[in-house]
Amino acid sequence: MEGAGQGTGTVVVVGSINVDEVAEVERIPRPGETVLATASRRNVGGKGANQAVAARIVADDVAFIGRVGSDAHGDFLRRGLRDHGVDVEMLGAVDGCESGAAHITVADGDNTIVVVGGANRAWDRLDDSEAARVGAAAVVVCQLEIPPTVVDDAAAHTRGRFVLNAAPAGPVSAPTLRRCDPVIVNQHELAVLTGAEVDDVASVTDAATALRARGALSVVATLGANGAVWVTDDGSGHIPAPTVRVVDSTGAGDLFVGILAARLATGTPMDDAVTDAVAAASMSVGAVGTIDSYPARGDL
Hints:
Number of helices: 9
Order of helices and strands: EEEHEHEEEHEHEHEHHEEEHH
Number of strands: 13
Largest sheet: 9 strands, mixed
CATH class of the domain at 11-16 and 48-72 and 124-292: Alpha Beta
Distance between the termini: 28 Å
Strand content: 25-35%
Strand order of the largest sheet: 5-4-1-8-9-10-11-12-13
Shape: globular
Structural class: alpha/beta
Helix content: 25-40%
């Protein structure tokens, strides 16, 4: 069974928001090595915030629920999401806590990321107004950069469709897994959740099918340049990705999640939603930046 929408197409993202400090280098440094950056930038990031901005490319109504610190970075992050058309009424501030941050190194289309959780880790459940907002949404999106108790709480209050991006890789409680429609993972995350070796489309499909058998209503697995695999009770499929020149892959996975969630919120079938998400992610890797590389509304 696939979760039913609530009619409005509203997407609510419950998740992480960080200040991204990005350094562009000629190559990723080895342990103990110092390299000089060719450029640097600061922008709004975090898997949750990225996914909310991505959903807004398609959906007219996107809200974000999360936590920032009571610092200047919190104001910067709130303003940045608002500028992208995301409702930040329920982006709360935690006194005495710093906003989350991510230190990102980008080289030749690849990246390394170190995340400092900060305020993202400073809550354990939704308040009553947040729970009501989640319950009224057509699609609710979570990731694992926030405490698992918050993820479980969001899943429990969802009355529409619950989408979980199980990233970074980690355990998912059985009740939450049974709400996932879909759970979205990359190959590494799929391997962690299933214990299977996944190195091609066939093995990814088998592992995704096994994860669905454990309770997930549907599963979508991303394969980078090889596109994505989806598994539902109606069957499975593989959507290949177009061949593109990769400049910067940072945030492409979050764009995939946001587009997929927004398409599902409007009742788009899974195969078509995955196709659109693959296309969007393929567009973004050809440009530098995270949300700055995302396509504009109407470009898809």
